[in-house]
């Protein structure tokens, strides 16, 4: 009996060959899918590292921002205080204004007599201002 003349045997061999080829192709695709899966796992790991790094940097920026805000509040308080001092100084008594004028005259080179007459200061005070100015300027 010739087995190759049997149609069912030829069909069985053909089906077996097709299945073998199909399994080979499927194995190739499965290996590709495993490689793609591995590559995607690496990408996910890198993304997680990047996310964690970004979280850390954001936290640091947040801390710096809070510190800067506190410093701004502190500077604002100092500015308010300086403005108060400046207003107090602008409401000086006439006597204080005369001394300020006398100091300015000394800086411009005025003499004792001129300071006494212009600022209505006693001679001793005018001489004291001149002496202080000479001492500061190193003359």
How many individual helices? 4
Strand content: under 5%
Largest sheet: none
Annotation, overall tally of beta strands: 0
Radius of gyration: 48 Å
How would you classify the helix and strand content by structural class?
A: mainly alpha
> How many domains is the backbone divided into?
2
Note the run of SSEs as H and E.
HHHH
Percent in helix: over 70%
Distance N to C terminus: 138 Å
The gross shape turns out to be rod-shaped
Give the rounded overall mean pLDDT: 87
Unreliable stretches covering 5 or more consecutive residues: none
Describe this structure in words.
This protein is an all-alpha fold. The protein has two domains: 1-65; 92-139, no CATH class. Helix content is 87%, strand content 0%. It contains four helices and no strands. The radius of gyration is 48 Å and the shape is rod-shaped. It starts with 6 loop residues before the first helix and ends with a helix. The mean pLDDT is 87.
Summarize the structure.
This protein is mostly helical. It has helices at 7-90, 94-107, 112-119, 123-137.
Q: What is this structure's SSE topology?
A:
Elements: H1 7-90, H2 94-107, H3 112-119, H4 123-137
Looking at this protein, list some descriptive labels.
single chain, 139 residues, mainly alpha, 4 helices, 87% helix
């Amino acid at each position: 009996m010739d087995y190759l003349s049997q149609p069912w045997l030829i069909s069985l061999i053909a089906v077996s060959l097709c299945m073998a080829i199909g399994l080979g192709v499927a194995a190739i695709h499965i290996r590709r899918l495993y490689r793609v899966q591995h590559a995607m796992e690496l990408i996910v790991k890198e993304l997680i590292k990047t996310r964690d790094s970004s979280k850390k940097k954001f936290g640091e920026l947040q801390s710096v921002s809070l510190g800067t805000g506190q410093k701004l509040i502190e500077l604002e308080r100092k500015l308010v205080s300086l403005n108060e001092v400046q207003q107090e100084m602008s409401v000086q008594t006439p006597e204080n204004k005369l001394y300020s004028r006398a100091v300015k005259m000394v800086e411009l080179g005025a003499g004792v007599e001129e300071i006494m007459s212009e600022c209505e200061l006693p001679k001793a005070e005018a001489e004291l201002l001149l002496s202080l100015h000479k001492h500061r300027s190193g003359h």
